């Protein structure tokens, strides 16, 4: 058993800093590089890509990244774990193996975790009496079954552990929990058991701290953010983990950003519901038990985390097509910019009403005035407002109504209030609305598989 391992966060979402994983590999010592690419909407985007091309459906940044880091990772024995396989982890693995072959890298083992994609099993699951009821509304999935774009179970850490036990250098998964990516190497390296709930909870908390990338090392920090040094070269967080469940959150010494009590504590509050019951497939973590100690020099100790047994369910993330939307912007300038923008919105709405266009929602934002805070926005003296951006968005099941909305924007320039600019890119086009359907499924109905590929 190792005395400690260093697990580095390389991505917080698909589209995060491209150089972050490269810097984690090259600017200090690490044992594992974990990269979280997935969000609920990402799965539907990837599914659409796979529908058009069966070889796609994964984060296509990954092969290019491997060209940059794979030789170094192989030389230093840095293992890579990512859920960037999306809805097609096997194709992702094949793309990595292709990179390895072209670079002459030998003895590389890539593991793929599959089984989370249950889209094609929906009828079978419903026949078994599991209606995948919406966790928020209670409605059965039969209501939207014909509109489903993707349906994926959130696996946890243990399928990844199984892959590591098969000597995988790289583990590619589909919809795995963000926290499971970090927890898995701790279970594997320290020999934790499935019923070591305090330890599993400690690893889960570490995963939660790492999952959003630099958000725990000074990025998006609500505290004294101006004091965070050198955010242009911000270092992503690293979990220095120990067999007893204690973790020290840190970063490479030669990078910007800051790891402090405040930055870590703020990330702990991110995206949690009941803090005593942070539910994952592996355990339930009690966030009220967490203790933090700022050790200085970008090192924060996390300890004394308590956990309890996991539930009998997996969470299912489904997406489905729910109509169409479109949005457009126009900029109105001083004087009376706010009055002009409000008048333009009123004119647009009356014209759409006269056309009998059907919308489930019309939303207006006055960017620079109330777009962030809505009715809570501070009342401003209009003479002090240089410009206001009018942004109008519509949503409807009726494609034609959304399309016609797009044809009503440009005419406002010459048939509405004066001093308008900012119209570019042509008429706004309807785009598909992708809605989210969360559900639960008994674990006994789902099985994962681990497949090994190698060169």
Helicity range of the residues? Answer: 25-40%
Poorly predicted runs are none
Instruction: Give the class from helix and strand content and strand pairing.
Output: alpha+beta
Tell me about the biggest sheet? 10 strands, mixed
Mass-distribution shape: globular
Strand content: 15-25%
Rg, Cα atoms, Å: 25 Å
What is the oligomeric state here? single chain
Distance between the termini: 28 Å
Any idea how many domains? 2
Number of helices in the DSSP assignment = 12
**Could you give the order of strands across the largest sheet?**
11-12-8-7-1-2-3-6-4-19
Overall number of strands? 19
Mean pLDDT: 96
Characterize the structure shown.
There is one protein chain. The protein is of the alpha+beta class. It is built from twelve helices and 19 strands. The chain folds into two domains: 5-116 and 154-311, no CATH class; 322-435, Alpha-Beta Plaits. Helix 3 crosses helix 4 (89-103) and helix 7 (178-190) packs across helix 8. The longest helix has 18 residues, at 337-354. The model has no long low-confidence stretch (mean pLDDT 96).
